[in-house]
Amino acid sequence: MKIRNSALAGIALAASAALGLTACAGSGTPASTGSAAASASGGAVSGEITVYNAQHESLTKEWIDAFTAETGVKVTMRQGSDTELSNQIIQEGAASPADVFLTENSPAMTQVENADLFTDVDKATTEQVPEEFRPSTGKWTGIAARSTVLVYDKAKLTEDQLPKSMLDLAKPEWKGKWAASPTGADFQAIVSALLELKGEAATEEWLAGMKENFKAYKGNSTAMKAVNAGEVDAALIYHYYYYGDQAKTGENSKNVTPYYFKNQDPGAFVSISGGGVLKTSKNEAAAQAFLKFITGKKGQEVLKDGTSFEYAIASDVPANEKLVPIAELQAPAVDPAKLNSEKVTDLMTKAGLL
User: Fold this and answer.
1) CB distance 120 to 112 below 8 Å
2) pTM
3) Neighbours of 230 (CB within 10 A)
């Protein structure tokens, strides 16, 4: 959806005047239309918020620093994994000190939503995020995205030898040839999409074949390193591990290349990183403003220009130029609100993968 530039720019100017701020944040990037220095109702924000962060720490720190520079709101970040923090929020319930929850993948957001712990996201924020990158419920929103890829050893495989579908990895010819990190939230999100797209029977069948065929590693980076070292032919991971390594020394990815399944295949799943505001937030105006900021132009430009190599998805900001454009990924349509982490954990445990 398009941002209503004139209206949001007016809010930004009013908030800047109220707070006595300059038009630009300390990052040196141009001032964005739609400043987060005001809540949806037009009032200035202040005070403090606490963010439970399961996103990459360095990425969220960039968002926080830019937001604080623009608004003066102090942000405390508590770092953890998707499932760790979602479970903690649920256990804390009404006593949770969290104002905002950010994740790498959608299932943890759905877990908190199903516990009825999110308030609605402000309309001004959801208007910045296209419909395909947020849940149908409106209880949280997408903030970034990552694509499923199969990284493979260029010396061992040619593209015509690669599986046409992720489902082919369960076939006997792939026994011992591919790797994954099944204990991580990243991989479990991919299985969640498979469950939503193909149903329980097909998911059980694929997981059984996976158990027979794959080699387990702890972490996507480790799985990619195994391919690079010749231990396995391929690994099912998210795209940004490859691009992040390439942007550094490339030593863990020099022998591999990413393969995109496309064609609305389950292996073309694009996982949405989420952000939501807790019902129990003691500073909801600032919490909503933070979520609006990271889905706004400045926040999304952190993704476009930074080193996380995750996809920008909002405010008409394009992806990092090194990435395959998101429109070309041909990802299957999946409502993030329907991803069922609890069922996936049960199925993966039954298959002997957890």
Assistant:
1) no
2) 0.85
3) 11
